[in-house]
Amino acid sequence: VNDISKSLPLKNKKVLVTAGPTYEAIDPVRFIGNHSSGKMGYAIAEELANQGAQVTLISGPTALTVSNQGIKKIDVISAAEMLETCKQEFEQTDICIMSAAVADYTPQEVATQKIKKEATDFSIQLKKTEDILYQLGEAKKPHQLLIGFALETNDEEAFAIQKLKKKNLDFIVLNSLNDIGAGFKKDTNKITIIDKNLVKTTFELKTKTEVAKDICAKIIASL
Ligand code: CTP
Ligand code: CA
User: Which positions fall inside the DNA/pantothenate metabolism flavoprotein C-terminal domain (predicted)?
Assistant: First the structure.
Protein backbone atom coordinates (compact mmCIF):
# COMPACT_ATOMS: atom_id res chain seq x y z
CA VAL A 1 0.00 0.00 0.00
CA ASN A 2 1.14 3.56 -0.61
CA ASP A 3 2.03 4.58 2.92
CA ILE A 4 4.92 7.00 2.61
CA SER A 5 5.35 7.20 6.41
CA LYS A 6 6.58 3.58 6.40
CA SER A 7 9.83 4.61 4.81
CA LEU A 8 10.48 7.70 6.91
CA PRO A 9 13.81 7.54 8.78
CA LEU A 10 12.45 8.48 12.22
CA LYS A 11 9.33 6.33 12.13
CA ASN A 12 8.56 4.90 15.61
CA LYS A 13 11.15 7.17 17.25
CA LYS A 14 9.92 9.08 20.28
CA VAL A 15 11.43 12.54 20.35
CA LEU A 16 11.38 15.23 23.00
CA VAL A 17 12.08 18.82 21.99
CA THR A 18 12.18 21.85 24.29
CA ALA A 19 11.83 25.36 22.95
CA GLY A 20 11.45 28.98 23.92
CA PRO A 21 12.39 30.89 27.05
CA THR A 22 11.32 30.28 30.62
CA TYR A 23 9.71 33.00 32.70
CA GLU A 24 10.65 33.24 36.36
CA ALA A 25 8.01 35.09 38.36
CA ILE A 26 8.98 37.99 40.62
CA ASP A 27 5.42 38.88 41.62
CA PRO A 28 1.97 38.43 39.98
CA VAL A 29 2.81 40.91 37.20
CA ARG A 30 6.56 40.68 36.64
CA PHE A 31 9.07 38.06 35.59
CA ILE A 32 12.67 37.50 34.56
CA GLY A 33 12.92 36.15 31.03
CA ASN A 34 15.09 36.23 27.92
CA HIS A 35 14.86 37.02 24.21
CA SER A 36 14.30 33.47 22.95
CA SER A 37 11.48 33.35 20.38
CA GLY A 38 11.27 29.55 20.22
CA LYS A 39 11.62 29.59 16.42
CA MET A 40 14.61 27.23 16.31
CA GLY A 41 13.02 24.63 18.60
CA TYR A 42 9.67 24.74 16.82
CA ALA A 43 11.42 24.33 13.44
CA ILE A 44 13.26 21.28 14.83
CA ALA A 45 10.02 19.78 16.16
CA GLU A 46 8.31 20.25 12.78
CA GLU A 47 11.22 18.74 10.83
CA LEU A 48 11.49 15.70 13.12
CA ALA A 49 7.73 15.14 12.83
CA ASN A 50 8.03 15.42 9.03
CA GLN A 51 10.68 12.67 9.20
CA GLY A 52 8.16 10.39 10.92
CA ALA A 53 9.05 10.89 14.60
CA GLN A 54 6.48 11.02 17.41
CA VAL A 55 7.30 14.45 18.75
CA THR A 56 6.54 15.94 22.15
CA LEU A 57 7.32 19.65 22.27
CA ILE A 58 7.76 21.21 25.69
CA SER A 59 7.43 24.92 25.12
CA GLY A 60 8.08 27.93 27.28
CA PRO A 61 6.00 31.07 26.62
CA THR A 62 6.11 31.91 22.89
CA ALA A 63 3.77 33.36 20.27
CA LEU A 64 4.24 30.29 18.04
CA THR A 65 1.90 27.46 17.10
CA VAL A 66 2.71 24.07 15.59
CA SER A 67 1.48 23.21 12.11
CA ASN A 68 2.10 19.44 12.16
CA GLN A 69 -0.95 18.11 14.00
CA GLY A 70 1.00 15.04 15.11
CA ILE A 71 3.14 17.11 17.49
CA LYS A 72 2.07 16.87 21.14
CA LYS A 73 2.70 20.29 22.67
CA ILE A 74 3.02 20.82 26.40
CA ASP A 75 3.15 24.45 27.58
CA VAL A 76 5.23 25.35 30.60
CA ILE A 77 6.28 28.67 32.09
CA SER A 78 9.16 28.33 34.54
CA ALA A 79 12.44 26.40 34.55
CA ALA A 80 11.12 24.30 37.45
CA GLU A 81 8.01 23.33 35.45
CA MET A 82 10.11 22.54 32.38
CA LEU A 83 12.35 20.30 34.52
CA GLU A 84 9.38 18.36 35.95
CA THR A 85 7.82 17.88 32.52
CA CYS A 86 11.14 16.79 30.97
CA LYS A 87 11.71 14.28 33.78
CA GLN A 88 8.26 12.78 33.20
CA GLU A 89 8.84 12.44 29.45
CA PHE A 90 12.53 11.53 29.21
CA GLU A 91 12.43 7.83 30.12
CA GLN A 92 10.17 6.96 27.17
CA THR A 93 12.19 9.19 24.82
CA ASP A 94 14.65 7.94 22.19
CA ILE A 95 15.98 11.35 21.14
CA CYS A 96 15.93 14.58 23.14
CA ILE A 97 16.84 18.02 21.81
CA MET A 98 17.09 20.69 24.45
CA SER A 99 16.84 23.96 22.55
CA ALA A 100 15.02 25.96 25.24
CA ALA A 101 16.72 29.02 26.68
CA VAL A 102 16.22 28.00 30.31
CA ALA A 103 16.70 30.72 32.93
CA ASP A 104 19.84 30.12 34.99
CA TYR A 105 18.47 32.00 38.01
CA THR A 106 15.05 32.47 39.56
CA PRO A 107 13.84 34.71 42.38
CA GLN A 108 14.38 33.17 45.80
CA GLU A 109 10.87 34.19 46.77
CA VAL A 110 7.86 35.09 44.65
CA ALA A 111 5.81 37.93 46.11
CA THR A 112 2.13 37.03 46.31
CA GLN A 113 1.10 40.64 45.79
CA LYS A 114 2.39 43.25 43.37
CA ILE A 115 5.57 44.83 44.73
CA LYS A 116 5.04 48.57 45.05
CA LYS A 117 7.78 50.94 44.02
CA GLU A 118 9.53 52.87 46.74
CA ALA A 119 11.70 55.96 46.77
CA THR A 120 14.80 53.76 47.03
CA ASP A 121 16.49 51.36 44.64
CA PHE A 122 15.39 47.75 44.72
CA SER A 123 17.10 44.39 44.39
CA ILE A 124 15.98 40.77 44.21
CA GLN A 125 17.79 37.73 45.58
CA LEU A 126 18.13 35.02 42.96
CA LYS A 127 18.85 31.32 43.34
CA LYS A 128 20.19 28.95 40.69
CA THR A 129 17.76 26.85 38.70
CA GLU A 130 18.44 23.17 38.11
CA ASP A 131 20.35 22.40 34.91
CA ILE A 132 17.77 20.28 33.09
CA LEU A 133 20.12 19.06 30.39
CA TYR A 134 22.74 18.04 32.95
CA GLN A 135 20.13 15.99 34.80
CA LEU A 136 18.96 14.31 31.60
CA GLY A 137 22.62 13.59 30.77
CA GLU A 138 23.00 11.82 34.10
CA ALA A 139 19.85 9.74 33.51
CA LYS A 140 20.67 8.95 29.85
CA LYS A 141 20.66 5.29 28.80
CA PRO A 142 22.97 4.02 26.01
CA HIS A 143 20.12 3.81 23.45
CA GLN A 144 19.12 7.45 24.01
CA LEU A 145 20.46 10.40 22.02
CA LEU A 146 20.82 13.68 23.88
CA ILE A 147 21.44 16.95 22.06
CA GLY A 148 22.04 20.36 23.59
CA PHE A 149 22.58 23.90 22.46
CA ALA A 150 25.22 26.40 23.47
CA LEU A 151 24.83 30.11 23.10
CA GLU A 152 28.14 31.91 23.39
CA THR A 153 29.63 35.31 22.67
CA ASN A 154 33.33 34.43 23.09
CA ASP A 155 35.63 31.37 23.19
CA GLU A 156 32.65 29.66 21.58
CA GLU A 157 34.08 26.26 20.71
CA ALA A 158 35.92 25.77 23.99
CA PHE A 159 32.79 26.58 26.00
CA ALA A 160 30.62 24.39 23.77
CA ILE A 161 33.00 21.42 24.21
CA GLN A 162 32.93 21.92 28.01
CA LYS A 163 29.11 21.76 27.93
CA LEU A 164 29.11 18.75 25.58
CA LYS A 165 31.30 16.79 28.01
CA LYS A 166 29.83 17.99 31.29
CA LYS A 167 26.23 17.31 30.19
CA ASN A 168 27.00 13.90 28.59
CA LEU A 169 25.67 14.92 25.16
CA ASP A 170 25.87 13.12 21.83
CA PHE A 171 26.30 16.44 20.11
CA ILE A 172 25.96 20.13 20.78
CA VAL A 173 24.68 22.86 18.47
CA LEU A 174 26.70 26.01 18.90
CA ASN A 175 25.15 29.40 18.16
CA SER A 176 27.40 32.38 18.32
CA LEU A 177 25.82 35.76 18.95
CA ASN A 178 28.78 37.17 17.00
CA ASP A 179 27.43 35.73 13.78
CA ILE A 180 25.39 38.25 11.83
CA GLY A 181 21.92 36.89 11.15
CA ALA A 182 22.10 34.33 13.95
CA GLY A 183 20.31 34.19 17.25
CA PHE A 184 17.25 35.57 18.96
CA LYS A 185 14.07 36.47 17.04
CA LYS A 186 15.78 36.08 13.67
CA ASP A 187 14.50 33.73 10.99
CA THR A 188 18.06 32.69 10.16
CA ASN A 189 20.78 31.00 12.13
CA LYS A 190 24.40 29.98 11.73
CA ILE A 191 25.46 26.91 13.64
CA THR A 192 28.41 24.66 14.30
CA ILE A 193 27.76 21.10 15.41
CA ILE A 194 30.36 19.42 17.64
CA ASP A 195 29.80 15.75 18.38
CA LYS A 196 31.04 13.57 21.23
CA ASN A 197 34.04 12.50 19.13
CA LEU A 198 34.79 16.22 18.78
CA VAL A 199 34.06 16.10 15.06
CA LYS A 200 33.11 19.62 14.12
CA THR A 201 30.83 20.69 11.26
CA THR A 202 30.31 24.36 10.42
CA PHE A 203 27.27 25.40 8.41
CA GLU A 204 26.43 28.48 6.38
CA LEU A 205 23.89 31.08 7.46
CA LYS A 206 20.49 29.57 6.64
CA THR A 207 16.82 29.86 7.51
CA LYS A 208 15.89 28.13 10.76
CA THR A 209 13.87 25.61 8.74
CA GLU A 210 17.00 24.66 6.81
CA VAL A 211 19.09 24.62 9.99
CA ALA A 212 16.51 22.24 11.49
CA LYS A 213 17.03 19.94 8.47
CA ASP A 214 20.80 19.92 9.06
CA ILE A 215 20.30 19.07 12.75
CA CYS A 216 17.80 16.36 11.82
CA ALA A 217 20.27 14.87 9.30
CA LYS A 218 22.94 14.75 12.02
CA ILE A 219 20.45 12.99 14.33
CA ILE A 220 19.64 10.39 11.67
CA ALA A 221 23.36 9.85 11.02
CA SER A 222 23.96 9.40 14.78
CA LEU A 223 21.34 6.65 15.25
N1 CTP B 1 20.08 24.25 29.96
C2 CTP B 1 19.24 23.50 30.77
N3 CTP B 1 18.90 23.93 32.02
C4 CTP B 1 19.39 25.10 32.49
C5 CTP B 1 20.26 25.88 31.68
C6 CTP B 1 20.60 25.41 30.42
O7 CTP B 1 18.78 22.44 30.34
N8 CTP B 1 19.02 25.51 33.70
C9 CTP B 1 20.45 23.73 28.63
C10 CTP B 1 20.02 24.61 27.47
O11 CTP B 1 18.73 24.24 27.03
C12 CTP B 1 21.07 24.29 26.41
C13 CTP B 1 22.30 23.97 27.23
O14 CTP B 1 21.85 23.67 28.56
O15 CTP B 1 20.72 23.15 25.65
C16 CTP B 1 23.31 25.07 27.29
O17 CTP B 1 22.70 26.27 27.70
P18 CTP B 1 23.59 27.57 27.87
O19 CTP B 1 22.75 28.66 28.45
O20 CTP B 1 24.35 27.83 26.59
O21 CTP B 1 24.70 27.07 28.93
P22 CTP B 1 24.73 26.99 30.51
O23 CTP B 1 25.14 25.60 30.86
O24 CTP B 1 23.45 27.49 31.11
O25 CTP B 1 25.93 27.97 30.87
P26 CTP B 1 26.05 29.58 30.64
O27 CTP B 1 24.68 30.16 30.46
O28 CTP B 1 26.73 30.06 31.87
O29 CTP B 1 26.92 29.73 29.40
CA1 CA C 1 22.47 29.51 30.55
Answer: 10-221
Looking at all shown ligands, the one closest to residue 152's CA atom is 1
Residues 6+ away with beta carbon under 8 Å from 159: 150, 152
With the most atoms of ligand 1 within 8 angstroms of its CB, the residue from 59, 84, 98 to mutate is 98
Report yes or no on 1 lying in a domain: no
Give this prediction's pTM. 0.96
CATH number where 144 lies: 3.40.50.10300
Task: Please identify which of the residues 2, 12, 34, 154 carries the catalytic annotation.
Answer: 34
Asked whether residue 128 is marked as a ligand-binding residue, the answer is no
pLDDT in tens, 25-82: 999 999 999 999 999 999 999 999 999 999 999 999 999 999 999 999 999 999 999 9
Q: Please tell me whether the interface predicted TM-score (ipTM) of this complex is above 0.90.
A: yes
Cβ(87) to ligand 1 under 6 A? no
Residue 185 lies inside a defined structural domain of this protein: yes
Supply the angle between the helices 208-222 and 39-50 in degrees, to the nearest 10. 50
Q: CA 105 to CA 126: how far, in whole Å?
A: 6
- Residues 6 or more apart whose Cβ sits within 8 Å of residue 110: 25, 26, 27
